[in-house]
Amino acid sequence: MLSKKTKYGIKALSFLARQEDQTPVQIAEIAKAEHISIKFLESILLLLRHSGFLGAKKGKGGGYYLIKDPKEINMAHVYRILEGPIALLPCVSHNFYEKCDDCADEVNCSVHKLMTEVRDNTLMILENNTLADISFKQ
């Protein structure tokens, strides 16, 4: 299942993407609009800032804003930052591969084959969507 951290992070990024002039938006405004706890949202936005998606301005008129065009923000990258590996098992992960302790033969493992297909399809969907694709009505 998708964690609340990832769900709320995507919602917050989408909210910021829809801001017409990309002026900074206060955390409280995002939290209220997206029904997210301010404290939880603070930690998520901090992570997204350190990952290079957001900028922050302090003081009057301050808040968070996107530092990249929403068309340049790939959802696979966002997912990995917020959630971690896309694969459901470490033995099928591209970036976080680990052999399963209980598996003698990955090549003939039915679970491995299925989870590879799940990973490939999930990855295709995430890689083929940007923040712009999910934030604006088509």
N-to-C SSE string, H for helix and E for strand: HHHEEHHH
Radius of gyration: 18 Å
Q: What is the number of E strands?
A: 2
Shape: elongated
Give the mean pLDDT. 93
Main structural class: mainly alpha
Q: Approximately how much beta-strand content do the residues carry? A: 5-15%
Query: Fraction of residues in helices?
Result: 40-55%
State the end-to-end distance.
27 Å
Lateral strand order in the biggest sheet: 1-2
Number of discrete helical segments: 6
* Biggest sheet details: 2 strands, antiparallel
Regions with pLDDT < 50 over 5+ consecutive residues?
A: none
Care to describe what's here?
The protein has 138 residues and is mainly alpha-helical. Helices cover 48% and strands 6% of the residues. The protein is built from 6 helices and 2 strands, in the order H-H-H-E-E-H-H-H. It has a two-stranded antiparallel sheet with strand order 1-2. Helix 2 (27-34) packs across helix 3.
Would you kindly provide a brief summary of this structure?
With 138 residues, the chain is mainly alpha-helical.
Q: Secondary structure elements and their pairing?
A:
Blueprint: H1 4-17, H2 27-34, H3 38-50, E1 54-57, E2 63-66, H4 75-82, H5 110-127, H6 131-135
Antiparallel strand pairs: 1-2
Keywords:
138 residues; mainly alpha; two-stranded antiparallel sheet; 6 helices; 6% strand; elongated
